[in-house]
Amino acid sequence: MTTSPRTGMVPVDDTALAFTDTGGPGRSVLYLNGSYASQRSWRPVIAELGTGWRHITYDERARGASKRSADYSFEACLRDVGAIVAASDVDRPLLVGWPYGAALAVHWAARNPDRVAGVVVVDGAMPWGLTGEANRERIRRIFGRMRFLLPLASPFGLAARMTAAQHAEVNIEINEICAALDPVLDRLTCPVSYVLATGANLGGGRGGDGGDAGHARSGASPQPAPAGQLQGAEQPHADPAQGLPGRRHRRA
């Protein structure tokens, strides 16, 4: 089915989400952003893939052109995915998610197995996260130190229009969700492809092969980037057209 390009706002709960649908006759791809990123992060990927795909992007609550909300929880973000799917009238899209969006993709696919064609996760959805009170305080301190920079980063899609404390709580929650991903991955019935790169995330320590990244890699295969670390600063560097293998990569 061929659809026409459109942009607009999708109402959900107490807010409204800015979305873009390129239309076209190709396979529908719904892109799910990093924690504090906006839909602009996907522009290089969309440009490279071209018009053979139907590209659907949106800004999460308090990101990009979307409105603020009283609820920035992971469950609220899952409701947002459903709202965008319904508003786009899309049949079984391919979900492409990047760190925070990767966790959203696998959770939404596990809960809606008949509504998803497959999942591509980019540097995320690894069953590991920074948990425990010491790490929660560490995350709060990091974002507290960045409280004056976050409003400046927001227009560039590098932060949300939230307080530093709200940024921190979003990150604390996604770390705990990532640490508990194993049962979610076990429930997936659609094809899943992992695209795993290198490098640090916003506030994520030393990056590279040191520190927490090395800790994450010691328990997973193939070599992952630290999915549960502080997220949102990098641009996605993956091509959804790589295809979907009929298996998923799991821990050794």
TrEMBL record:
One of its GO terms (molecular function) is hydrolase activity. Residues 29-147 form the AB hydrolase-1 domain. Gene3D superfamilies: alpha/beta hydrolase (3.40.50.1820). Residues 205-252 are annotated as: Disordered. It holds the Pfam family Abhydrolase_1. InterPro entries: AB_hydrolase_1, AB_hydrolase_fold, AB_hydrolase_sf. Keywords: Hydrolase. This is Alpha/beta fold hydrolase. PANTHER family: AB HYDROLASE SUPERFAMILY PROTEIN YCLE, MONOACYLGLYCEROL LIPASE.
